Amino acid sequence: MQLASKIIIADDHPLFRAALRQAVTQAIAGVEIVEADSLAAVQEAVVQHSDADLVLLDLHMPGTNGFTGLIFLRGQNPGLPVVVVSGSEEVSVMKRAMDFGASGFIPKSAPLETISEAIVAVLEGEEWLPQEIHEDQPEDVSVEERKFAEALASLTPQQFRVLTMLTEGLLNKQIAYELNVSEATIKAHVTAILRKLGVHSRTQAVIAAQRLSVDPARTDMES
Fold it and tell me: Where is the Response regulatory domain (predicted)?
């Protein structure tokens, strides 16, 4: 059994959070668990629990689009391991998650015992993938995507929220209303986002972010 740890479970489905909680408590004696149901909640949890040892992250939650949440969390918290737990179980998705900085990838279809085993392995400093996935398989991330991912990781939390809302098709005034700030503030954020991402329009920014999406978008327990 592992020594006491603190783990953040990030998934917007209460039933699956409960399943992960069971797997974690089976694997680790005295574990403290913090739950989050959106990327904003994950960010808040990471700030409030700076001693967290691991994040178990779903790829599809409010506030994140595919790999963007993973990339942003790793950029903001490079010392905090993140394991993706997803119903998108294609080999290419698993490999891209690892290439974007995940410490492991656990399919949602995995038995609880396997999930527990994977969590223990990552807490011990290892990387974990299903046995059928080989580390020597070629990378699925292009040089262009890797460069964009580095730029994405440099955004501030508020800039990341604005970019996410842009990808959802919201206008500046709608984003301002949602974030309770002025439209001028949103315009300033958009300008900074475009500069950091190295693009010239919000359309280019959205297209670049959408390349990091995962298809199919919702599978398994994800509806």
Answer: 6-123
